[in-house]
Specification:
By secondary structure, the chain is of the alpha/beta class. It has one domain (about 20-55, about 85-140, about 165-355): UDP-N-acetylmuramoyl-L-alanine:D-glutamate ligase. It is built from ten helices and 14 strands. The chain has a ten-stranded mixed β-sheet with strand order 1-14-13-12-11-10-9-2-5-6, sandwiched between helices. The longest helix has 15 residues, at about 320-335.
C-alpha cells in the first residue's frame, strides 16, 4: 500500500469521515480501572509464537590499553543470559503474572540448555510448545564495560545466527500446537524477528484465529503480511515503511490509512519520546504522551513489553485505549532499566498511581 496526495502535516485526520482525535493525558484512563485490570492479569493464558533467542550480557571493567592494538582491554566480571526477541515477550508476560504457552524452537546447544533452564524456574510456563532442534540457538552477545561505580556502556554486540531453515514437518508441528491451544488460550502474540519461525502458513493460521481470538502482531520485516490480525504494534519507522512513505507524511494520516488497509481492529504506533498513537476501527484516534521521563536508559526490548502488556490487558477485559495506556506505563518503566528488562505488576501499579 502506498499513501498518495497528502503530505500536509497538520493536526487533522485527512480523508476519513467522522474521525475523532483525543489527546490523552497519561493521568486519565477512560473506560476501566487499570489497577483492577492488572489484578486480572494473573492466570490469563497467553500463547507466544515466534523467534526465541538468547540475549547474553558480558560485563567488564576497562583497565589498560592493549599492546597488540589501539583498543582498551576489558577485564571480565560476569555474564548474564536472558530470553530475547519472542523470549523477551514471554519473560514480560511471566513477570506480569500470566500463564504463558510459548511455541517455537530452541537449539540443542549449551546456550539453548541455559534458556530451557531459565524458563524451567517458572511454574506458570507450559514448555510443551518449546521444541529443540539440532543446531545453534540464535544469540546476541552484548559486551558492556565501565568502572566499578559507574553505569556500564555497551561497546559491541556480536550476533550468532546460522540462518537455519526449518523443515515442513517442524513447521507443521507448530501449526498443530497452535490449533490445539486455540480452545483454551485467551490471547495470541506473534513475535516475528525474521529468524524463520513465522512463515505464511503460521500467519494464515493466526489470521484464522483472529476471527474469534485476540491476536497481537509484532514483526520487524513483514508487517504487511499481518492483515486481519486484531492489533499490531509497530514503531514509528516500521509504520512509515509499511505505508511505503517517508516521514514528511503526517503520522495521523499514515495510521488511519494503515488501519483500513491492514483490516485491523486497532493499530498502536509507538513513537519513542513522542509517546504512542492509537487508531481504533470506527474512526477514533488517540495521542498518548510518553509516561515518565523523556530521557531513557535503554530501549532494548521495550517493544516486546508493549506487545505483551497490550495482549494481557485485552485478555483481561480492557478496551484498546485502556490497554494502550497500561502498555505505555509499562514501557515507561522498562526503558529506565538497563538491558532486556521486564516490569512487575507492583511496578506497573506504582507508575499508574504516580500519574493519578
Amino acid at each position: 500500500m502506498k499513501i498518495k496526495d497528502n503530505k500536509r502535516q497538520d493536526s487533522r485526520i485527512q480523508g476519513v469521515k467522522g474521525s475523532k482525535r483525543n489527546r490523552s493525558n497519561p493521568r486519565i484512563l477512560e473506560s476501566s480501572n487499570p489497577i483492577t485490570l492488572i489484578d486480572r492479569f494473573k492466570g490469563k493464558k497467553i500463547c507466544v509464537i515466534g523467534d526465541i533467542i538468547a540475549d547474553v550480557y558480558i560485563f567488564g571493567k576497562p583497565y589498560r590499553l592493549s599492546r597488540e592494538a589501539p583498543v582498551v582491554v576489558v577485564k571480565y566480571e560476569e555474564e548474564r543470559l536472558y530470553p530475547g526477541s519472542a523470549g523477551n515477550t514471554i519473560n514480560n508476560l511471566l513477570a506480569l503474572g500470566a500463564s504463558v504457552y510459548p511455541v517455537g524452537f530452541i537449539g540443542d546447544d549449551e546456550i539453548g540448555n541455559r534458556l530451557i533452564k531459565f524458563f524451567s524456574r517458572f511454574k506458570t510456563l507450559d514448555r510443551r510448545g518449546l521444541m529443540c532442534h539440532k543446531g545453534r540457538t540464535v544469540t546476541k552477545t552484548r559486551i558492556l564495560a565501565g568502572d566499578t561505580h559507574t553505569s556500564k556502556q555497551q561497546i559491541i554486540r556480536i550476533d550468532r545466527d546460522d540462518g537455519r531453515q526449518y523443515s515442513q514437518s517442524e513447521k507443521a508441528m507448530l501449526v498443530k500446537k497452535l490449533k490445539e491451544m486455540s480452545h483454551y488460550i485467551d490471547a495470541f502474540i506473534i513475535s516475528d524477528y525474521g529468524h524463520g519461525v513465522v512463515d505464511e502458513e503460521i500467519i494464515h493460521c493466526m489470521r484464522d484465529l483472529a476471527k474469534k481470538k485476540i491476536v497481537v502482531g509484532d514483526s520487524r520485516y513483514r508487517l504487511k503480511s499481518f492483515k486481519g490480525m486484531t492489533i499490531i504494534t509497530p514503531n514509528e519507522s516500521e509504520a512509515y515503511s509499511l505505508a511505503s512513505v517517508d516521514e514528511s507524511y503526517d503520522i495521523k494520516t499514515v495510521g488511519t490509512r494503515l488501519l483500513r488497509f491492514m483490516d485491523l481492529k486497532a493499530l498502536l504506533i509507538t513513537r519513542g519520546n513522542k509517546g504512542m498513537d492509537l487508531f481504533v476501527k470506527g474512526g477514533r484516534t488517540y495521542e498518548i504522551p510518553i509516561s515518565g521521563k523523556d530521557e531513557v536508559t535503554d530501549v532494548t526490548g521495550a517493544g516486546d513489553t508493549v506487545c505483551a502488556t497490550v495482549a494481557l490487558s485485552l485478555a483481561s477485559g480492557a478496551d484498546f485505549y485502556t490497554a494502550s495506556q497500561i502498555a505505555n506505563f509499562a514501557a515507561g518503566v522498562v526503558v529506565m532499566k538497563r538491558g532486556t528488562a521486564t516490569v512487575s505488576p507492583e511496578e506497573l501499579k506504582r507508575a499508574i498511581e504516580i500519574h493519578k
